[in-house]
């Protein structure tokens, strides 16, 4: 499979290296094979966000090797670097080509907005031009663009001559400055600093816009918070015509793309199988036909679209990604690829418009994450995201399932230490995912791999409420925070202990976001199960969280309705929320607690961990609090990821032998 391209060595040569002083492993952990240095897991992958140009002749990627943060562009035909840009001053979320010469940089910056209190995560799109070697912001507040908004990074279409980008934004309303409309503007790509031209003023409740192949408005999506109405409208002869309307507390059908014939929008909805599928919403008469993409055993997780959001196919949810396309030839090709490498996770990262060249990210047995190009029926190795890891140092991940105490089947992942062959029960880490409507994948999880490298069995249950395993599995989590969702974790520990796979006296629970809540709930509501708990950006007080959502989404009741439904099955009284909030039951805690939180977390406020720390200190409990400076919710910086892992390493090895 591995055919080394001429530019593979070039990728290494342009990487900016510096020496790393690795920490010595703990004296408590000794093994025949040397421990992989902690930094190898803690640092961000060396190469990420790789994309291919429309011609297939250029690659762009983010290089974070050795403390640097560089956008690098490679010409594959010449095997040379043709562009580079220092990204250290911005938090980069995504890179992609608009053309052979133009690259979009999606970024999030935490900053103050003039005229508004506090600091906010503000998303922005920058355009990097390889011809001029200049970077310019595509949309800037002012000049008709409302100043008080946090999302200015979306591109919904390109003009047919590739001269303009169509971008949605809140537009200034001189008559009512506090009620801007969400409209559509177009930005000149060769001079993005020029005042953008308004294409459609939109409404206060517009959500999205779709254009046809002639750069004309095709449809728009709205949600009326006052009437709880989800609305899709087609644009005919200068008039909007409703083609879909539903009364719902929050949107449960997604509109995310256009069919190749431009006659329908692609709508996600739950099929009879209980899994999410994709249908055609016909713009002519509003009829819903299909499903066009559906499976009995998996939900659709995402669409494969071009810049104009014309749909080519879908990606299905699951421990390993799988795909389906409109094009039957592509279906046959991907079926052959899957059969050839059944144990590897093959993620389609990017592709050229003609599908002649595709870029894959591969994870699997002995593969910590590698990029491959596929062209003319052959895979060619491009780069490793973690070149410091050898194949034998990647710990194996296996799929298993078990029955919860009420009979529900819970899928799960187990990561086993590769260097331990003993049949003795292992110390274990319970690692619930965030979301909670999310799921883990059979890939290289940096935290799970770190724990396994230290001799722990890592358990990742897809507890009830997890997404990707059917609607019934999701709905069984409604109102079960701190209850049956927690029981699902306990039942995994119990079963594996009975099987002799883990030592029930050496189990720690570690999680982030909702997983952080589950970690605190585990220590609170099942204090005899875990010997320690680690909460990263986790929730301790559900009432506080919901109150914050109400304050910050005063005009978006649908968001609050969703959280009330998820947490309490729609019955979110103060008394109920207190009953499942770890902070109100902290007296039950016996295990040591480690709290880690980013001080600019916009998803879960740091106050959650601060209050929990104060409460545990007041009660005389053993607790440590680590504040991550200038870090948000997702541990996106090398420094803070390493700080997090060092804190966990010290804490875990102090409390689980």
From TrEMBL:
Signal sequence bounds: 1-23
Keyword hit for Chaperone: no
Keywords carried by this UniProt record: Hydrolase, Signal
Protein name as annotated: Prolyl oligopeptidase
Species of provenance: Neiella marina
Record SUPFAM superfamilies: alpha/beta-Hydrolases (SSF53474), DPP6 N-terminal domain-like (SSF82171)
A GO term, aspect molecular function: serine-type endopeptidase activity
One of the GO BP terms on file: proteolysis
Residue span, Peptidase S9 prolyl oligopeptidase catalytic domain: 444-656
The organism's place on the tree of life at top rank: Bacteria
InterPro entries: AB_hydrolase_fold, Peptidase_S9_cat
Pfam families found in the cross-reference section: Peptidase_S9
